[in-house]
Design goal:
By secondary structure, the chain is an alpha/beta fold. Helices cover 49% and strands 18% of the residues. Bound molecules: uridine-5'-diphosphate (UDP) and magnesium ion (MG).
Length: 314
């Protein structure tokens, strides 16, 4: 297990940012307002290889500023990777993760901390009661969390994102996990420490655009599914078994028809349909197997999860 790096800091707040030049001034203003209520804290912003003005804004407005620490990646490694870096660099007794686009209200952190202490738990995660914004995205998020819950070996709470607060115990455990596919909210549940939730209304992103492209969201969903369930791998057995059983029954029916009636050999359409269907099923299942092999491959390459270019304020 990684050593606890506690330096008598009460709270660390980890915020990944990627091309957030438009929100940053508002984010910093909002954080500044809340800092007095957080006591002895550090705010770790992880610049995930932004290509806009984020780097300069962070340098200019936070250089040497108390409480703030910044980690710059060499390139865009991804949201979960940025969160992982923030967790690894944190040293507070409690660590909170929040998005940099102000969709997660920083004011909630103290409420979560109170709940954590009062209810004697190690994790408090925020659950989106009402997610605003794009209907299609909302639908897929909902669907994803429900599929994940059905398939996963561990119980990942529904509709919870990364916004949370954790004790040092949990963070050290997450930091010590060697895996490279880092689906942080899954790892957080995996640790198994006592957790509780707090409900909140997730605000719409008012400034800047969502940095999650559809392909990035798809990758996140696949990481979540394959990282925490092996049921998709077993799909081929279930489907194969069902189809074999159905074909056996069909064979009997056809045989009976052949004997009793003069069986009229037409049915090209149904034949071609079955061929296409089976081709589709096989390719799909091959894809599923490929997904897991890809993961074994990245794990065996054993490359670091991210590369840090610069660290400020540490
Ligand atoms: N983000 C990041 N790297 C990426 C994509 C996003 O660090 O490759 C950050 C982004 O700046 C934001 C957070 O992750 O602070 C959540 O991203 P976004 O708002 O796009 O996600 P959504 O709210 O749509 O789920
Ligand atoms: Mg957002």
């Amino acid at each position: 297990m990684a050593d606890s790096k506690t330096k008598n800091l009460d709270l660390s707040i980890v915020i990944p940012v990627y091309n957030e030049e438009a929100v940053l001034p508002f984010l910093i203003e909002r954080l500044d307002k809340n800092i007095p209520s957080w006591g002895n804290c550090e705010i770790i912003l992880v610049n995930d290889g932004s290509s806009d003005n984020t780097y300069n804004i962070l340098k200019d407005s936070l250089g040497g500023k108390k409480h703030y620490k910044v980690v710059h990646f060499t390139r865009n490694f991804g949201h979960q990777e940025a969160v992982s870096a923030g967790l690894a660099e944190s040293s507070g007794n409690y660590v909170s993760i929040m998005d940099g686009d102000l969709q997660d209200p920083p004011e909630l952190i103290n409420q979560m901390l109170d709940k954590l202490k009062n209810e004697n738990t190690e994790i408090v995660y925020a659950v989106r009661e009402r997610r605003k914004g794009n209907i299609l995205k909302r639908f897929f998020y909902k669907l994803f969390y429900r599929i994940l819950r059905k398939l996963s070996d561990i119980k990942i709470p529904l509709d919870s994102g990364d916004f949370c607060i954790m004790s040092r115990l949990v963070v050290d455990k997450i930091n010590s996990l060697p895996e490279h596919n880092r689906f942080v909210r899954g790892l957080r549940s995996w640790t198994g420490y006592k957790s509780t939730s707090i409900k909140y209304n997730r605000e719409d992103r008012t400034i800047g655009k969502a940095k999650y492209s559809i392909s990035k969201l798809f990758k996140l969903a696949l990481d979540g599914l394959t990282g925490f369930s092996t049921i998709p791998l077993r799909l081929s057995i279930y489907i194969g078994f069902t189809i074999a059983l159905l074909s056996f029954l069909a064979a009997i029916v056809i045989l009976i028809l052949r004997i009793t009636l003069a069986f009229n050999v037409s049915g090209w359409a149904s034949l071609i349909l079955v061929v296409f269907f089976m081709g589709g099923v096989q390719l799909l299942l091959l894809g599923v197997v490929g997904e897991y092999i890809a993961r074994i491959y990245t794990e065996s390459q054993n490359r670091p999860v991210y590369v840090i270019k610069e660290k400020d304020g540490f």
